[in-house]
Amino acid sequence: MGGGLAGIRAAIAAAETDPKLRVAMVSKVYPMRSHTVSAEGGCAAVLREPDSFDGHAFDTIKGSDYLADQDVVEVFVREAPLEVIQMEHWGCPWSREPDGRISVRPFGGMTTWRTCFAADKSGFHMLHTVFQTSLQFANIERLDEFFVTSLITEDGRCEGVIGFDMRSGEVRSLAARAVILATGGNGRIYAFTTNGAICTGDGMALAYRAGVPLKDMEFVQFHPTGMPSTGILITEAVRGEGGYLTNAEGERFLERYVPNKMELGPRDIISRAMVTEFEAGRGLKGEYGDYMNLDVRHLGSEVINRKLPFMRELMGEYMGIDIVTDPMPVRPVEHYMMGGIDTDASGRTPMPGLYAAGECANAGINGANRLGSNSLPECLVFGAAAGRAAVHDARGVKAPGSNPIAGLVKDETRRIEADFLGRSSGTERVGEIREDLQKMMDAQVGVFRTGDGLKTAVKELAELRDRFARLKLDDHSRTFNTELVTALELENMLDGAETIIESALARQESRGSHARRDFPDRNDEKYLAHTLAYHTRGAKPRLEYRPVRITQWQPQARSY
Ligand SMILES: Cc1cc2nc3c(=O)[nH]c(=O)nc-3n(C[C@H](O)[C@H](O)[C@H](O)COP(=O)(O)OP(=O)(O)OC[C@H]3O[C@@H](n4cnc5c(N)ncnc54)[C@H](O)[C@@H]3O)c2cc1C
Question: How far, in Å, CA of 163 to CA of 412, rounded?
Answer without folding.
Answer: 8
